[in-house]
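Record minuted for everyone:
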Amino acid sequence: MSDIAGGGDPSAITSVTAESPKTTGFDANQIAEVKAWLTSQFDAVGKDVPDFEYTPRSIGELHKIATLSQAKTQAAVIVANDHRQKAAEYRSQAARLREILESVGLAQESLPSNVVSSAHVLAKVSNLLDIRDTELSSFLVAVADLSLRKTAVEEKRGKVQQESKVLLEYTRKAIARLTYLKRTLSQLEDDVAPCEAQMENWKTNLAIMESKERQYLKEYGYYKAMLNRVGYTPEVSHGVLVEMAEHKKDLEKKTKPILDTLRSYQDLPPDKALAALAIEDKKRQYAAAEKYLEDVLQSALASSE
């Protein structure tokens, strides 16, 4: 006990003189206690106290170790004395019981071997059941208590096994989920490069589309301004233009015979009076055709409105 509380290997102490320490800044009582404790510890093992340097730190640490060692040694002495006293009491009681057993003829030497064996078994059972008498009721109570504890332990064991099964199932599912997540992560990592390439392509296409959008908006504004300059209105739709083109074709068909007739007049001998009449007639027909075309256009515009 004193070796344990003595504080470590004395050879680890730095060597210097241990003869007359410098008392400047030291507590003389602590130094005396430390020297006395070191001397007692090394004398107990037949060795001399090694040289070391007396410093405030070393003296303080050694004084703490010495105080703790002395306290533990004193406690150990008290416990040892108590155990010795109890052993003496047990020996005295055993001697008294032996005398009583011998006086009634129940000494261990005079008993049969089977009785001695039974007594040893009974003593072991009593120690196992933690009872101090041989009454049947005490044995029954102890056995019942042991049975109850066994039942409680079995119940706890069943619960623990059930919980272990549940935890094992959770662990199995967690491992399966972890495997699935690892596989998914591996697939995602494999898809990173193609996706990044596709994203770069999309970024390039997006930049091109934005450029085209700005160009188309610019052209749209230009064409809109141009239509405004030429007087385009939403009423002049494609259907109206198609209808006007059809009317134009009809008028061209109607005026074509007149133009052919006028061209045929160019082959006649010049007669100023007849030519003037013919020209006037054709002018009237042409004017009527233009008026008809204008009326058709006006009616088409009015119907679209």
